[in-house]
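Progress note, sequence design subtask.
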């Protein structure tokens, strides 16, 4: 069971496509802003903190070993923090006691060191303890940590820690001595920037979606307007109005090319429609005439010549001739229909085309004997080809019959068969009035050659050339006609040389 097909308009497809594209851009931007940018800024902050920490280490290293130089340390730290206001410098003892800065100023620096011995055991784990543990672990792994390292705290804040070495009078409660440089790096500015960017991103998302909707609507209207115009014209043409014009001022080449193609199709369909009407009218006429004559002569036999053998024979012969005409017409129509529909498949075989053409021409001997026709033959011997022999017989017979019907007053026809570079070229030439150049392209498809120059075939139906074209197209053979008004016509077929 076939699934149900769902069709959507171009407007909907364009609208959906622009919306999906806008959503993809917004999603990509969100990912960049919230993830990639955060990673980038984190790496940049880590580099800046590492640079600042090393600078602070180098400058404080010269001041810290002397316990009385607290004012110099403070001056040094202030100068450092003026260069980067995001950083806050601390000095901690090994047990976690904060040595710098102190709330009581320079006088209390030594007092802090003493009190640290009494209170260190009571301190809970601090950010400093966490950072110091990371530093010690790195040093135990053998990593070079002479000037410290950046450390990321559990809540995402950045710090820097470095071991400053021994400091006079800094022995702590756990028996260790020495001091640590500890730098806190504020991420408030980064967080503020990220928050602002998120607000801007929300606004940008709304604007992008709005613009995508507007642009998709405008673009779809521009794209579908000519398509709608062409569609309406095509509907009028389908209803039988061949006066429609598909051409117009289009803004893109594809629609202009489509319009030209549809105009060409309109002209060809119009010709086909006229041809069908013409064929129907002429076939109806050809059917009506013999039927009328059959009925008339049958009535004459019944009413007048029934007892007169001579008249009866003459009248019955007319009935037989007209019946043959009807049979021939019906057979031609059926053959043409079968060939075009593909029901009559080809039965290809290899045969002697030279002998075959001679055999077909023998069927026209009665014309040379009774009506003064001359059929000249210029046929090379032993030329073989590959085709459906029965259908090629129809081709040769119809071409010669057409030449008989339209040749000049000299009643001369020339049939040739020669080997050429293209293949075996069969030609049938008459000495008639010729075909006007404007009718060369349509002569194969028309029931009559033209209303003015038509001469009723001797025993034809008017469908001979159409049958020839259909058979040769099915074979894939090249064919055509060369004609000059007043000098006759030459019909040719190129057969494969086998």
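Output:
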């Amino acid at each position: 069971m076939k699934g149900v097909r769902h069709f959507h308009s171009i407007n909907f497809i364009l609208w959906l496509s622009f919306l999906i594209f806008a959503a993809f851009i917004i999603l990509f931007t969100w990912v960049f802003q919230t993830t990639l940018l955060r990673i980038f800024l984190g790496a940049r902050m880590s580099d800046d903190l590492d640079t600042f920490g090393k600078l602070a280490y180098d400058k404080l290293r010269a001041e810290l070993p002397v316990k009385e130089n607290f004012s110099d340390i403070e001056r040094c730290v202030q100068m450092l923090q003026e260069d980067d206001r995001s950083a806050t410098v601390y000095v901690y003892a090994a047990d976690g006691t904060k040595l710098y800065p102190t709330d009581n100023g320079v006088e209390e620096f030594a007092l802090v060191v003493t009190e640290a011995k009494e209170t260190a055991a009571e301190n809970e784990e601090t950010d400093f303890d966490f950072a110091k543990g990371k530093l010690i672990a790195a040093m135990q792994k053998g990593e070079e940590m002479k000037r410290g390292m950046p450390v990321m705290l559990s809540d995402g804040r950045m710090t820097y820690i470095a071991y400053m070495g021994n400091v006079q009078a800094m022995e702590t409660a756990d028996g260790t001595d020495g001091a640590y440089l500890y730098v806190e790096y504020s991420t408030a500015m980064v967080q503020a920037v990220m928050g602002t960017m998120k607000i801007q991103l929300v606004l940008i998302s709304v604007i992008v979606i709005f613009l995508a909707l507007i642009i998709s609507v405008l673009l779809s209207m521009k794209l579908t307007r000519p398509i709608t115009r062409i569609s309406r014209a095509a509907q009028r043409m389908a209803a039988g109005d061949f006066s429609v014009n598909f051409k117009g001022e289009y803004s893109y080449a594809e629609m202009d090319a489509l319009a030209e193609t549809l105009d060409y199709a309109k002209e060809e369909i119009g010709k086909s429609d006229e041809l069908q009407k013409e064929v129907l009218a002429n076939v109806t006429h050809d059917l009506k005439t013999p039927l009328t004559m059959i009925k008339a002569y049958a009535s004459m036999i019944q009413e007048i010549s029934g007892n007169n053998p001579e008249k009866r024979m003459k009248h019955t012969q007319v009935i037989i001739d007209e019946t043959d005409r009807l049979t021939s017409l019906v057979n031609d129509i059926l053959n043409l229909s079968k060939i075009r529909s593909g029901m009559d498949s080809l039965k290809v075989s290899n045969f002697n085309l030279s002998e075959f053409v001679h055999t077909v021409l023998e069927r026209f001997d009665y014309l040379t004997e009774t009506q003064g026709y001359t059929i000249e033959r210029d046929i090379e011997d032993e030329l073989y080809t590959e085709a459906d022999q029965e259908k090629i017989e129809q081709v040769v017979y119809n071409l010669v019959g057409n030449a008989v019907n339209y040749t000049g007053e000299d009643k001369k026809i020339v049939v040739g068969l020669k080997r050429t570079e293209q293949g075996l070229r069969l030609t049938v030439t008459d000495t008639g009035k010729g075909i006007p150049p404007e009718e060369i392209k349509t002569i194969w498809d028309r029931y009559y050659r033209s209303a003015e120059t038509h001469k009723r075939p001797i025993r034809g139906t008017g469908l001979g050339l159409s049958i020839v074209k259909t058979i040769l197209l099915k074979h894939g053979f090249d064919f055509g006609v060369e004609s000059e008004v007043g000098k006759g016509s030459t019909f040719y077929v190129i057969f494969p040389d086998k």
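The chain has three domains: 10-193, 245-340, 345-495. Work on this subtask will continue into the next period as scheduled.
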